[in-house]
Amino acid sequence: MKILGLDVCKNSVVAWELTSLPKNFRSYFRDNKRPKDNDPLTFKANADGVSKLLALKPDAIILEPTGVHYSWIWAHICETENIRVLWVGHAEATHYRKQNKLPDKNDQADALALAAYALLHWGDDEFFLQFEAGRVALMRHLWLQLQSLNRIQSPIINRARQQLAREFPEAALSKSEPSKVDGLPPLWAWLAGRERSLKRQNTHYDRLYRDSIANQYNVGITTFTRKLSNLLCDLADWEGEIQTEVLEILNFPEFIPYRKVMTMFGIGVRPQALLISQIYPVTKFDSVGRFKRRLGMAKDEYSSGDKETMNTGAGSKLCRSQLYLWVLDQIAPVHARPNNEIGRKLGEFYDSRKSQFQDNPELWKQKAVTRLQQVALKEFKRSLSQNLIPIVSKELQPQLEATLNLTLQTMQMSLVTSIAAGDIAPGVKHKDVKRGFGNLVISQTAAYGCRLLFKELKRAVTNDYK
């Protein structure tokens, strides 16, 4: 079996071919690495480069999803040519490369690590990312397009508001949410001169501008502002077209059970599209842990010496962001919670976690301070051990270490006494601690919501849910 690891660049890929796992990666790479100039396994993104890659006749290519827009065409071509395409997560690829002591910032080493990782875990889908084809992939693609349009609009809106600060200050900071009738934001539609069915919206801004101080002092609205507004209306129209496509896909029968469940949770249409594109079909998950990991809500343990931490870094960052926003908008405000059993459970969970902080804020502040001080003490000890102990004679090192340990214990007891007396470190602000634990409550609620969501989706697809 011939495996090609591909490290994707902007206009090329660097390949490494493997048929078996090397015994010693470091020496194997040193003996077989190729010069960067005129590398026969660097293929340009053109007809000649594709032809040369296909001529190798690989059984599979292995890719990372970083720079997905650049890697998509290579994956598409290979799938069309009946070559299997496997995707490896960035964290897994990086860890595997470091574990085998391959050099960093080296395209060939990255390609070798990808190929070797695939050979090592061949046949076990759990070690690879899964990308669904067809409607699911299209829905995710459309969701990303909507996100891109949102990012494009923000700087245009900011620039237009700067213009209005001098040309129409009364409207410069006014909200302009898209209308549910035609999807256009009223302020920008008025500035662009768009014809609308909602005449009262135009009338409102007509009256406001008539009485504007800028208008009274002969400061007109410039062509620049009107063209920016027109561009925002075009983007709003475009956004509506994409959202219509998303809805058309979501209304296919296979997604209806998923939508019913997510609507019960108070999850909106756009987040539904992203979440479904990540988890469909839910039957592929054999545990709630894997389900949460896919949505970016599983915690991974990172331990080193006397340091133990939990990091929510695996899975989809996009899904994690959407779940945080869902908790913030639909669960945290009591009035916005779904009026059903799911809403009650989520609300009670959020309130119980929040009350732990609110009932005794000083306790949480002390915990945060203690944690920061413990980190500082460990760093102080590490620095002394690296910089001071090595330059002392071997005979005096045990005595110095004992003195350092006694000093650190004394410092720690002093800190505990200070905290108990209420002498909190001046660098730690209450609002920062409050914000940190507020984020923790949101994260815990999102993770709990994922657990409930997994259970309800499993019931839905097995027809137990009506």
TrEMBL record:
This is Transposase. Transmembrane segments: none annotated. It comes from Anabaena azotica FACHB-119. Residues 259-331 form the Transposase IS116/IS110/IS902 C-terminal domain. Pfam families: Transposase_20 (PF02371).
